[in-house]
Write a structure and sequence with these properties.
Structural class: alpha/beta
Helix content: 40-55%
Radius of gyration: 25 Å
Strand order of the largest sheet: 3-4-6-5-7-8-9-11-10
Length: 474
């Protein structure tokens, strides 16, 4: 019934149209079952792509199951236990997404490239990484919440710790890099805070719109210091890619992901994330060279807000070709640092044609100016950010779980009177002249308007279905 065309878009085999949630106007249950069935097909298709296109292997967990015990799995490249150089761990958010996915909604309604992890996996392998793709949301037997939980994967946090203890620890890679989206950031902070030895192995962490909180997760000061030095969070905002977005107290620095859509952040920030992971700088050094929207002479140092360097330091940096005006112009033009454009730390050329394109930066000056004007307001908001984050994480998880249930056709009509008596009571409250002006017409002239409204309702309901699923990647 459905197939993926060459550009990765999901199309109907008979009509060629993209997916529509509302196919039966008066049968919400049918529409929901149909959507969920398609979601399961997407899961299996992505698993197949991980094995055939990316050449990854399914690794069963727990490693020692009893005869009738339920099992889960994650994916790893063939060289995960032999690559002595570097390993990349890729982690999705919470909700219905499974290994290899950022967002089911994007895969169904946009394209495979934006909603899946396949571009990151492909590029990581080309850069010489061994790869592990976690499956933190596979927590129940047969992926059915009414059945038994899986030992070693009963929760996202347990899944990650089990994979670390029983697999990643055995990997010989000198350097481990992590990409974690949304709730995957919570899982990553829990992992590295639980086992300090993991921080000795992990080199960098790239968060994409992570909802973690060092404070609310009880992270030690050593853990917080490590993340400040070695991780960046690309967040959803209206700004172009890499505009500095500040820092929640005692937490990681943030850059704009180049999109205001939560589930699109991993795809939109692709180039900047790869640039960060393939470079030699730590997070603060990366901010000093790549962050946009900073005042001239501003630099970052450990556990501090940006510091302004003195004239002598700036002259020394310019002599080395670092932080110069020319370099800043290249960054604003979207070209990246001259020393790293188009290359990995292994000297391997990256095919820029095949990578997701950045936002057009012609208006970057205006965007930066707008960010500067909003800076004071943002700083005030961040003063209470930690208190607000107490509510954010559980709400994100609750929202992610709800994305399995599409909105009903009646959701937008909840405030309207439901019975004839209620309608009459509402009508009595209106001024007489308003009643006359808005008296419904009868006869043939009304029929086209009714048909038009029916079509509009269908489109609106389908849009709601699209928007509701943003939680699948959180």
């Amino acid at each position: 019934m459905w197939f993926l065309v060459l550009d990765g878009q999901l199309r109907h085999t008979e009509t060629g149209h993209q997916f529509e949630f509302m196919v039966k106007d008066n049968d919400q249950q049918y529409n929901q079952r149909r959507y969920e069935a398609l979601g399961k097909i997407i899961d299996e298709y992505i698993y197949e792509q991980l094995e055939t296109a990316s050449h990854l292997k399914r690794i069963e967990i727990p490693v020692d199951p009893s005869e009738d015990e339920p099992t889960g799995f994650f994916f790893a490249s063939d060289d995960a236990l032999t690559n002595e150089e570097k390993l990349m761990v890729i982690m999705h958010g919470s909700g219905v997404v499974r290994a290899g996915q950022w967002s089911r909604r994007l895969i169904i309604n946009d394209r495979l490239e934006s909603g899946s992890q396949l571009p990151y996996i492909k590029t990581a392998i080309e850069m010489g990484y061994a790869v592990i793709v976690t499956n933190t949301n596979l927590n129940y037997e047969d992926d059915d919440k009414s059945k038994r939980r899986i030992r070693g994967s009963a929760s996202p946090e347990e899944h990650m710790l089990y994979v670390w203890d029983n697999f990643i620890k055995k990997c010989p890679a000198k350097s481990i890099d992590v990409i974690a989206h949304s709730y995957g950031g919570v899982v990553t902070v829990n992992w590295l805070n639980t086992d300090p030895d993991a921080r000795k192995r992990v080199h960098r962490v790239a968060f994409t719109d992570s909802v973690h909180s060092m404070y609310n997760q009880g992270a030690t000061q050593d853990t917080a210091d490590w993340f400040i030095q070695n991780s960046i969070n690309w967040v959803s905002t209206f700004a172009v890619l890499n505009v500095y977005q500040g820092q929640v107290r005692n937490d990681v620095h943030k850059l704009s992901a180049g999109t205001d859509v939560h589930e699109l952040t991993s795809y939109s920030a692709f180039r900047s994330v790869i640039r960060f992971l393939s470079g030699t700088e730590n997070a603060l050094e990366f901010l000093n060279t790549d962050a946009l929207g900073l005042e001239e002479g501003t630099t970052f140092s450990k556990n501090e807000e940006p510091n302004k360097e003195d004239e002598g330091d700036r002259d020394e940096r310019e002599e080395k070709g670092e932080g110069t005006q020319e370099e800043g112009q290249r960054l604003q033009a979207g070209q990246g640092p001259a020393s790293s454009a188009g290359q990995t730390d292994l000297g391997m050329e990256i095919d820029k044609e095949s990578l997701p394109q950045e936002e057009n930066r012609e208006n970057v000056s205006e965007a930066i100016a707008a960010e500067a004007e909003a800076k004071e307001e943002r700083n005030n908001a961040e003063a209470t950010a930690e208190e607000r984050l107490v509510e954010v994480v559980p709400k994100v998880k609750e929202h992610d779980d709800q994305e399995e249930k599409e909105p009903t056709a009646q959701s937008s009509l909840e405030t309207e009177p439901e019975t004839e008596e209620e309608q009459k009571q509402e009508q009595r409250k209106l001024p007489e002249e308003y009643k006359q002006e808005n008296e419904p017409e009868t006869g043939k002239d009304q029929q086209p308007d009714q048909e038009k409204q029916t079509e509009e309702d269908k489109r609106e309901t389908n849009d709601q279905a699209i928007e509701t699923e943003s939680g699948d990647c959180a």
